[in-house]
Amino acid sequence: MVKVAPSILSADFCCLSEEIKKVENGGADLLHIDVMDGHFVPNITLGPPVISSLKGKTYLPFDVHLMIENPEKHIDDFIKAGADIITVHVESTVHLNRLVNYIKNKGIKPGVALNPSTPLSSLQYILDDIYMILIMSVNPGFGGQKFIPKMLEKIRDLKRVILQENPEILIEVDGGINEENAPDIIKAGADILVAGSAIYLSSNPGDVIEKLKTAH
Ligand SMILES: O=C(CO)[C@@H](O)[C@H](O)COP(=O)(O)O
Ligand SMILES: [Co+2]
């Protein structure tokens, strides 16, 4: 069954621990934490102090999505803060192989994210080193955007590559996911669905999580 990772970007930041409990009780599998620096993307969110303050408030693993320039400068801070998965953007660092292996050697699961226009070929020589690939299905920076339909083809193409090269890698899809488009995204090959606004702007987050998990 597909896993669901609610993004706290659309949660009420004034009471994050209650907001996290809501999705934990609603059956979430991971907690997706969007870190934005105002440079790599045109928005600023939160950093390591907020993440470490949330550790211990939930048993959900922390799926930290870094949308920051020069992520290598800050990796140790995110590890100390309690990240379980750290995903970096291919477009944000020159030394991707070094960074991914640094994360892995620290005992953290490394993920690599691709912006919608970045080709899959940028991952060709890194497939033995990573735990997860995050396909951005919106341009990163904001919650509440519309899913880019062309990304279904990208997910299908990636699934084919992974099955040939390293079937262990998980495919996470992030941006504009809701109950209506989830079946197609799952059919295309997604293992983990990130959803922010669909879950947090709903009056019943647990119901949305359940519908995403059982979509087919
Ligand atoms: O990384 C990002 C945005 O850059 C995402 O994780 C969004 O926060 C998902 O929000 P929705 O598109 O589901 O509202
Ligand atoms: Co994200």
TrEMBL record:
Its cofactor is a divalent metal cation; Zn(2+); Fe(2+); Co(2+). The keyword Transcription does not apply. Pathway: Carbohydrate degradation. One of its GO terms (biological process) is pentose catabolic process. Keywords: Carbohydrate metabolism, Cobalt, Isomerase, Manganese, Metal-binding, Zinc. Belongs to the ribulose-phosphate 3-epimerase family. Catalyzes the reversible epimerization of D-ribulose 5-phosphate to D-xylulose 5-phosphate. This is Ribulose-phosphate 3-epimerase.
